[in-house]
Structures are given as structure tokens and as C-alpha cells.
Fold:
Amino acid sequence: MDVRREVFWITTWARRLGWSLLVLCMAAGLAAPTPTSADAKRDRAGGLEVRSPNGALTASLTAVGAGCDESVVTIRTAGPAVVHSFTSPDCQNGYVVNQAQWTADSRFFIFNLQSSGGHQPMNQPLWRYDRTIGDIREVSLPGNVVPGAFRLRPHDHLALRVWNIDRQAEAGVEVDLRAER
Structure:
């Protein structure tokens, strides 16, 4: 079976079963298919490195280790690295990066997470790194992110679907990342 066919089947089952596509691809020894993966490559530790479009920054997505797929996100710039760990001591209460992408202007690195232990399956928080202030923060949303891909739009806008618990319905949401503080 060729690599493209393996990626197809892994992607199909990952979506059907709600598993982390990144973790499945890493386990299969394949490069994770991220929308900006033209400059994505594996690092020496087996994680995924995604270069920003302008080439000035690199985001590293690394699993903790054997038997624990929880993620550590590291943004490397010319200055000190910004590191945020989504791990837990028992590898059951942390998060795994599910999708990651740089904006076209390299200002934001956006990624969403999936629970590593099966608790709170609808809680798939969305986070962003803002190059202008040099930090990683959760994006404020009016509900839980619906599993599936987010899409970056021009001018640092993000389109995704959320589940509104009060209304018991999905809704499309567009977020202006520049206004998000």
C-alpha cells in the first residue's frame, strides 16, 4: 500500500472515530497533513516542525514520549523560545494537537486540541500564538469547537463551527484574530 493510500485510510478513520489525526500519522510514521505543510518536516525527536510563511519562526509540535501522546508546543524565534505544555502527569488529562497552521502573514500560529483521555470529548479548545506580543493564549469562542478542520481566511480571520450548549445546535463562527486579546 502506498503512502497516499495509507494517509487516506488513516484520515478517513480518524475523522469517523474522532481520533487525533496528528497522533495517528505520527504513530504510522507519516508526515501529518497540515494545510501549511509545504515547510513542515519532522524534527530529530519525531515531532513535527512547521515553518512560518516568512521563514522567521518555527512551531514544533512534540509528543511527550512513549505511551503518552500529549503535546508540547514550542515557538522558536530569534529570541527565546515560547513553550506551552498541554501534558498531564498521568497522560489522561492533557491534550493532543489536532490541527495546526500559520496565518499567511506569519503573525499567528493557530492550533486546536483534543483531550488525550477521552474525558470532555466536545471540549476541543483553540489556541493561538501571537508573534507581536510573543505569547500563547486560548481563543475565546461562544461554544465548544466541533471536531473538524478550521479554515484561515484573509486578514487573519478564522472560520470554524462551534456547538452551542444552550441552543443544542451547531453554528458557524468567524473570529478576527487581531481583535482577540
